[in-house]
TrEMBL record:
Gene3D superfamilies: 3.30.70.2450, FAD/NAD(P)-binding domain
Name of the molecule in the record: 3-(3-hydroxy-phenyl)propionate hydroxylase
Keywords on record: FAD, Flavoprotein, Oxidoreductase
CC cofactor: FAD
EC number: 1.14.13.127
EC class of the enzyme, as a word: oxidoreductase
Organism: Kutzneria viridogrisea
Ranges in coiled-coil conformation: none
Positions of the FAD-binding domain: 3-306
A GO term, aspect molecular function: 3-(3-hydroxyphenyl)propionate hydroxylase activity
Length: 363
């Protein structure tokens, strides 16, 4: 074996899973089809549950220092006040995905993780002992497991023959990070119009995330996305472009909703957008993907260590959670000291535990 786990995709889900596995002393190799990190801003925030997870790992301060908490959010355009949430971190953190990825990659590097760029997965073959992963570079990696978190058009999912049923998009949103010198307010949130709605949200000083959503307009899959298209869409909705100029990034997204018909085929597993896609407004895709990683890590680690906690009867079985060890997903709020990696005296497993003086899982 070259490594224990090959992770296809170096985005937030892949990086978080890589860090989790390295904390469990599991060997990890991350491969990505891109030649390098794009720097595109993409998702714009970290939700409360993800903040709790980062806190449990002792790295939250890195993210808090780089972003701004916001006390409110929305559900379908209806304002929500997060002050009443039962959490030490109830307020979402406004932070661009490009910054989140940079911080996660720095943490991963500290744990000995390296991302191999220009390394798209082009083939796979598996048996009861492991999986052979072919890369676009001509390299072949042998591992015990392969995890595809390589986006909605996942090569891993397709190579594994896993279906991706769901519903196609019924609308399209355009978005761009631009300057808006003539915007009359600090921000505009979901201003509804007869044919759609638009928002202008300040994510960085001097820069705005402009989003236009037009109903019943579905562009062709290969249709380009341009600054001119964003400006024209805003004029159609708002009657003005607010002096929009200097775009840093232009993209589009829709409301297609799909879910893999299974998340696992033998030693091949899926997480993040490779497993499920949906309307991504509010950074939901990034946050669900990170929590996918946290949920999957302890199962993979326990399966490979084949500890007494594992219910596995074969090498490729993924165990259910044992009775005595706890994981971050079990509780929304940890009272007292932050949990840490430890060995449980009852079962000898190394996991996230809130320990008592006896060294056993105290929760």
């Amino acid at each position: 074996m070259n490594t224990d786990v090959v992770l296809a995709g170096g985005g937030p889900t892949g990086l978080m899973l890589a860090c989790e596995l390295r904390l469990a002393n599991v060997g990890v190799t991350v491969v990505d089809a891109l030649p390098e990190r794009t720097g595109e801003s993409r998702a714009g925030g970290i939700h409360s549950r993800t903040l709790e997870v980062l806190d449990q790992h002792g790295v939250l301060d890195r993210f808090l220092d780089a972003g701004d908490p916001t006390p409110v959010g929305h559900f379908s355009g209806l304002w929500l006040d997060f002050d009443g949430l039962e959490s030490r971190h109830p307020h979402p953190l406004m932070l661009l995905q490009s910054v989140i990825e940079r911080l996660l990659e720095r943490w991963a590097a500290e744990l000995g993780v390296e991302v191999r760029w220009s390394s798209e997965v082009t083939g796979l073959r598996q048996d009861e002992n492991g999986v052979e992963v072919g890369l676009a570079t001509g390299t072949t990696l042998n591992a015990r497991y392969l995890v595809g978190r390589d986006g909605g058009r996942s090569a891993v999912r397709k190579l594994a023959g896993i279906g991706f049923p769901g519903t196609p998009a019924t609308m399209t949103a355009l978005l761009g990070d631009v300057r808006l010198p003539d915007l009359p307010e600090d921000f505009i949130f979901m201003r509804r119009c007869p044919t759609g709605h638009f928002s202008a949200i300040s994510l960085e000083p001097g820069w705005f995330r402009m989003i236009t959503s037009e109903y019943d307009h579905i562009p062709g899959r290969d249709e380009p996305t341009t600054f001119a298209m964003l400006r024209e869409a805003l004029i159609r909705l708002a009657g003005t472009d607010y002096g929009m100029h200097s775009p840093k990034w232009i993209s589009r997204f829709g409301d297609a909703a799909r879910q893999a018909d299974r998340y696992r085929d033998g030693r091949v597993l899926l997480a993040g957008d490779a497993a499920h896609i949906h309307y991504p407004a509010g950074g939901q895709g990034l946050n669900i993907g990170v929590q996918d990683a946290v949920n999957l890590d302890w199962k993979l680690a326990a399966a490979m260590r084949r500890t007494r906690c594992s219910t596995a009867t074969t090498p490729n079985a993924i165990p259910s959670r044992n009775a005595c060890c706890t994981t971050p997903a079990r509780s929304r709020h940890w009272p007292g000291p932050a949990p840490r990696w430890t060995h449980c005296a009852k079962c000898s497993a190394r996991s996230w535990c809130s320990t008592t003086s006896t060294g056993t899982c105290g929760r």
